[in-house]
Design a protein that fits this description.
The chain has 242 residues and is of the alpha+beta class. Helices cover 19% and strands 10% of the residues. Strands 1-2 form a two-stranded antiparallel sheet. It has a two-stranded antiparallel sheet with strand order 3-4. Helix 1 (2-16) runs antiparallel to helix 2 (45-64). The protein is globular, with a radius of gyration of 40 Å.
Amino acid sequence: MASILASLLIGAACLNDSTAFVVPAAPTLGYTKASRHFELHATNPFQSQISAATTALLSFSLLSTPLAINAPPAFAAISDGASLAANAKLTTGGASTLQSGRTISITRGVNLDNSDFSKQNLKGVAFQQSIVRDSDFRGTNLVGASFFDATVDGSNFEDADMTLCNVEMAQFNRANLRNAIVREMYVSGSTLFEGVKDIEGSDWSETQLRKDQQKYLCNHPTAKGTNPVTGVDTRESLMCLD
């Protein structure tokens, strides 16, 4: 601050007394149009002193003015996300898997409602945390696929091979599992088969169902028939007590 005030005093003196602080003029470069070359010439001492005083005033102005810094927002803007609660899962994760040495991404924030996956080889493909309602998986190879925390309401899995599928926390309301092979599936206490449309001819061998889910499926009006591929009776695979 002392140096700033000193600069101001010098500047004021320079403005009031043109003879004060006379400093020999420093040579500067000038351009002479007629001779088309640069030459040295001296500047006016009084102009130099005024320039120095002006510089001092500008320096003081810059130092005494608070810097206005726009701080970044504390939190990034949060998008509205899915408009429906049922679609909220789309914002929480994606789906990918390793198949035959290559990574396959199926869902990453994409709604797959009403999709046609029929008669395709989707072995090991993941649909975790996905919304795959009213989609067609008829005759599809889904061995080792993942529907972890997925909503597959109304989807058609007729004749699909879902052996070793991960369906933990999945919801199968209105889903069609007619003649599906659902052997050794990974289920959890939160997997819901309530409201399933059809399980006739399905093979549930070695799938460890929760007791209430097992009872519900055994009491389902379509719990009958034999799987056309494995030849296993549906009620026997469910270990129904009858």
